């Protein structure tokens, strides 16, 4: 493999990795906002949880994202809980969203 081909391959891999990171962040926000709108919630705070995944700890794949959220419902009550985005195999390519409240 020539030096130029190797350089192009490395640049393509780096570009794909950067695109993937941005896409995952954008997609997770899209799913989270859609979930909130469908349930009449206003998101007051959100924290992505990579390690401490609450009730989803043992059942979450590496392709799914888990958030700890604080929301306000349409009656003005505040709630905190966990929201998991994506499904086991397809991750964020899926529209699946699950919540568990404290």
Structure description:
The protein is built from 1 helix and 4 strands. Helix content is 36%, strand content 28%. The chain has one domain (3-101). It is an alpha+beta fold and 102 residues long. A hairpin with a 5-residue loop joins strand 2 (65-72) and strand 3. The chain has a 4-stranded antiparallel sheet with strand order 1-2-3-4. The longest helix is centred in the first third of the chain and has 37 residues, at 3-39.
**Unreliable sequence segments:** none
Q: What share of residues is helical?
A: 25-40%
Please report the total strand number as a whole number: 4
Tell me the overall shape.
elongated
Q: Kindly name the structural category.
A: alpha+beta
- Strand arrangement in the largest pleated sheet: 1-2-3-4
End-to-end CA span = 56 Å
Please tally the helical runs, counting DSSP H or I stretches of 4 or more residues. Answer: 1
Q: What value does the average pLDDT take?
A: 96
Q: List the domain count as a whole number.
A: 1
Protein name: DUF3301 domain-containing protein
Helices and strands in order, then pairings?
Layout: H1 3-39, E1 42-49, E2 65-72, E3 78-85, E4 97-101
Antiparallel strand pairs: 1-2, 2-3, 3-4
